[in-house]
Amino acid sequence: MLDLSLHALHLVAVAIYVGGGLMLHGPLRRALRPIPPGQASIVGSRVGGDFTYLSWMSMALLGSTGYWMAMRYGWGDVSAPFTLWINPLVLQTSKGVAMLVMASAWYLIVISASIITFVLRPRLGLRVTPNATVEAANRAVATISRADRWLDILALANFGLATVALLAGAFFH
To answer: How many other C-beta atoms are found inside a 10 Å radius of the C-beta of residue 75?
Structure first.
C-alpha cells in the first residue's frame, strides 16, 4: 500500500509540474499576446508567481517520493543520498539506468529552477520610475528583456528534462 501511495503522489507531482509548464508556455502565453504589455506583465507576474510556488512544491514532492521509492528498491542510502551515482549495480539494469536518468533530471531542474526563481524572476520585476534617465530606463528594459529570454530558455530546458525523466519513468515500471 505504501508503494502504491508513493507512486501515486509521485505521478501527481509530475502531472502538476509538466501540466503547469505546458499551460504557462502554451495557451497562457498565446492568451497574453493581444493584451496591452502593462496588463499582460501583471497577469504574467501573478500567474508566474503562483506557478513558482506550485512547481517548488511539486519538485519537493518529486524529490522526496522519488528518493523514498529508490530506497524501497534498494538503490539509495538515507545517510548518503548520492550513492545512486556511484553504485555500479544501478547501471546493470534498465530500471537502474532509468532511476539514474530521473534523479539526474530532477537535480538539473532544481538548479535551473533556482536560477529562475532567485535570479531571473526578480529581474523581471524591475520598474522604471518616472524621473529615471533615458539611460537608466534603457538599462532596465535591457535587463528585463535578457531575464525574460533566459527564463524562456531555462523553462524550455526544464520541460525537456521533465519529458526525458517522464519517458525514463515509463521504462522504470
So the answer is: 20
